[in-house]
Amino acid sequence: MMIMNVKAKRGRKKKPRLVRGLTRYLVMACIIFGTAFVCVKQRNSVTKLGYIINDLKKRIKQFDEGHDSLEIQLSELKRPDRIKKAIRDRGLRLSEVEPRQKVTLRKPDAIEIMEAESQKEDHEKSKKNDLKGESLAVRN
User: Fold this and answer.
1) Distance of CA 34 to the CA centre of its chain
2) CA distances from 120 to 13, 29, 127, 134 (A)
3) How far is CA 84 from CA 58, 75, 93, 111, in A?
4) Are 118 and 111 in contact (CB under 8 A)?
């Protein structure tokens, strides 16, 4: 009997060394390019947001200036002497208020109750302090 050396066939052939090296460099290049792309995109987004924020700050400043001018106009329009002059210019009559026409508004019940309770508590505290003072005087 004769024994033979038989090599088993591999299912896959080994790639040449050059192809393996190129594959590694290609993968590394893709990773580096992808990372650089993400960094540039993020920086671009941050810059864009900076411009948007600056534009919004300018608009806020414009609105504040407009608001201030409207506040000044409102205070001018609310002046009593200006209102009286406008009434006279239009020929309307402005009558003075008589004392019997004045109405005094009373405080809401809830406020009165709260004030009464706080006065009651203050009164009780002062009584306790008075009793303490009397007890000290009796002991002495």
Assistant:
1) 37
2) 101, 84, 11, 21
3) 40, 15, 10, 36
4) no
Q: How many angstroms separate the Cα of 12 from the Cα of each of 17, 18, 27? A: 15, 17, 22
Least confident of 46-50, 117-121, 127-131: 127-131
Give the single-character DSSP code of 90: T
The radius of gyration computed from the CA coordinates of the chain, to the nearest angstrom, equals: 46
In a domain, 70, yes or no: no
- When divided into structural domains, the chain yields a total of 1
pTM assigned to the model: 0.43
Domain region containing 25:
15-64
**Total residue length of the chain:** 140
